[in-house]
Design brief:
eight-stranded mixed beta sheet, mainly beta, five-stranded mixed β-barrel, 43% strand, OB fold (Dihydrolipoamide Acetyltransferase, E2P), elongated, 473 residues
Length: 473
């Protein structure tokens, strides 16, 4: 009865209604009224009828924890993949998944359980569809926000008549980079990719190894840059070719205050496994690349050949080649033509049956490796590889360090020098072995290292997956 009053009179809260009940009991019918009897009088004063059954169809903003058997109308913004887990109290497996919907005022997550997790595929649901969710109950999520649970008695129906409900479409709620002003959830954002996208691994909140997609989005005139991260991403959902200057739409993301350690202090965009990435313009990816190999390294444990290569404009590329598919002897200064199965920024993968690669015998007008050779004094922080010939001046130091993300990794460093100066050479993770094996006084040639700003602000040479070190006699 109190819930009915609170639904009708949202300016009141539970404690205020209880106070009104006590006043009625004290002033009107002292010794004669029960709490429920007094509540009838309070409801009459407020003009609320307790005879009517509470409504079952709710606007999302009016949903409260504890509501049962309710119906919600909303438009889908994200459909997360199915999660399978072991129940704590038994050996049985259970499945669930999250659908997020919105209406003109708010949004909410719907958790489907067990046999209902297949509803999206059975109904061929997509983001942007208007649905009716019936016979559900509202609980408190782990973030203390209401979350709708849909069990065996619940149902989802596709709403065909969009005009009956005033729920804006996805294009109507789409925002540009310039529109982003405050932290907000369940957004659709359009922007232009400004930096080479990359995929990295991390440990998620469930203790599982997962992958994240990192990219920087800018507005049309390049005056605002927003760091963007899609967590727990499935690589199969990333477009085959995702390169700089592409205009993309991120469906189902949120904005939050940026971490100054990673960005410029502006807002950041964050998504998850339910986020959808679409091209705004019809993209026609480059089908083939003609490149000159600058450096190469064989990873026998993964059957991969990791190469640094450049195109005719001297743009650097990281080429990942599956040596089981392409048993070719590829060496520095060779020219290759490849049809990749995946292009992510300046990272090219030639790793499945849909890809192709061969060595071109005829000479092409492409930069040679010699143009990347540099003296230490001429090195500067830039998006380009360097080839440096130098002498090892210090016994390498190898240690384990904690990264900003909390990951424990191995890093090795030493000092190398030539007749123009000295610089620190650093190798992280697998590259630490390349550095730690160096000997003081040894003359070496470092291929395809990048100049970066070190933790103390000094410039250093950082080895990449495709970097190579050889001994010069």
């Amino acid at each position: 009865m109190i819930e009915i009053i609170l639904e009708k009179k949202q300016e009141l809260d539970f404690d205020k209604v209880k106070e009104m009940i006590e006043e009625k009991k004290a002033n009107v019918g002292a010794g004669y009224l029960t709490d429920q009897g007094a509540l009838f009088l309070v409801a009459a004063d407020l003009g609320v009828s307790l005879e009517k059954s509470p409504k079952t169809e709710y606007n999302i903003k009016d949903i409260f924890v504890g509501a049962r058997d309710i119906t919600i109308i909303g438009r889908i913004i994200t459909i997360n993949p199915i999660r399978t887990f072991q129940k704590r109290d038994s050996d049985q497996q259970s499945r669930n998944r999250i659908i997020t919907i919105y209406d003109k005022d708010s949004s909410i997550r719907i958790k489907l359980w067990d046999e209902l997790v297949d509803f999206p595929e059975q109904l061929n649901l997509r983001h942007g569809d208007l649905i009716k969710v019936s016979n559900c109950q509202v609980k408190s999520g782990m973030d203390n926000k209401p979350i709708v649970n849909l069990g065996s008695n619940g149902s989802i129906d596709l709403v065909v008549d969009d005009n009956k409900y005033q729920v804006p479409t996805l294009p109507e709620i789409t925002e540009s980079i310039d529109d982003l002003s405050v932290p907000k959830e369940n957004l659709v954002v359009i922007g232009k990719i400004n930096s080479d996208p990359r995929i990295s691994e991390f440990t998620n909140s469930r203790g599982e190894r997962a992958k994240s997609l990192h990219l920087e989005l800018v507005n049309e005139d390049n005056t605002r840059k927003i760091r963007s991260v899609i967590w727990n991403i499935n690589e199969e959902n990333v477009p085959k070719s995702l390169t700089t200057n592409s205009r993309i739409k991120l469906i189902g993301v949120k904005t939050k205050i940026g971490n100054p350690n990673f960005g410029n202090g502006d807002l950041e965009i964050h998504g998850d496994e339910g986020t959808v990435l679409e091209f705004v313009d019809q993209e026609k990816p480059i089908e083939n690349y003609i490149l000159r190999i600058i450096s190469r390294r064989v990873d026998r444990s993964e059957n991969k050949l990791l190469c640094m290569a450049v195109d005719k404009e001297s743009r650097p590329y990281f080429v990942n080649i599956d040596t089981k598919l392409f048993e070719l002897e590829i060496n520095p200064n060779d020219i290759i033509e490849c049809y990749p199965n995946r292009v992510l920024g300046n990272s090219i993968e030639v790793t499945d049956q849909d890809s192709f690669l061969h060595i071109l015998k005829e000479e092409q007008d492409l930069p040679r490796g010699e143009q990347f050779e540099a003296k230490i004094r001429d090195i500067s922080v830039a998006n380009r590889p360097y080839i440096v010939e130098a002498i090892v001046l210090q016994i390498p130091n190898k240690t384990d360090v904690n990264t900003k993300s909390g990951e424990l990794v191995t890093v090795a460093d030493t000092i190398i020098g030539d007749d123009t100066g000295e610089i620190r050479l650093v190798g992280w993770r697998q590259n630490s072995n390349l550095v730690s094996q160096l000997k003081i006084g040894e003359r070496i040639k470092v291929f395809a290292a990048n100049a970066v700003s070190g933790k103390e602000g000094d410039m250093e040479l950082s080895l990449k997956p495709y970097s190579e070190i050889i001994t010069v006699s």
